[in-house]
Amino acid sequence: MESRPGISWEKKREDFRQILHRMGPFRLGAIILCGIVLLFLSCGGMDAGTTKSTSEEQVEFTEEEEYREQMRTELMKLLGQVEGVGKVQVMLNLRNEEDEEPRVAGVAVVCDGGDNMAVKREITEAVSALFQLESHKIKVMKSKEAKE
User: Fold this and answer.
1) pTM score
2) Containing H/E element for 88?
3) CA end-to-end span of the chain
4) Which residues of the chain have pLDDT under 50?
């Protein structure tokens, strides 16, 4: 190895020229084309990974929506059987925990008996017990369609 970098570079450049000369323009073009194709395919692979993560998010979103609907339906059935509640509608707010499982974070209940303090207390206590929520995260309201 020579101590002067300029000479080393010139030697490398000359070696490169000899390789290109032996290779010929056709092979050189083929190698460059292969490199471009590989670069393009690697970019396409990244897009496929992005699509996969997007589809995974869609699956997770669907599971979350299914959980929300199942809990909402079951809660409506349960509350509908309580004396004084009458016709009932429920909305659930979910949050994802660190373990990525959805948890109920808040509940709104609209029902015919929502103006009755005893009915409100029963609903609040039931929802609090079922979803381990503090009472301030549960709102019970009277339906405007309720008969007075």
Assistant:
1) 0.59
2) strand 88-96
3) 100
4) 1-2, 47-48
